Amino acid sequence: MTYRLRLFITGRTPHSIRALENLQEICETELSGRYEVEIIDVLENPAIANVDKILATPTLVRKLPEPVRKIIGDLSDREKVLLGLDIYNSDFERTSN
Known about the structure:
39% helix; KaiB_domain; Glutaredoxin
């Protein structure tokens, strides 16, 4: 299964950079070879943000697999991101049981 993700950011702010770094780390460790990421700067592409109904940045949108899910913030809460994306690694599963 391939995850199709969109990360909406606003320029190169510290919050946006942190979200990019956190997403990259999560994708590399949890989805290695099974993801596509599209980075959208709402300052440069406001129409795309409008279509996806993005009201705050950074926002991560999981387009596939359906259903579409959104996570707002810098993605620093790893457990919240994994739950939001329906990704469970063995460490997370052990601590939540």
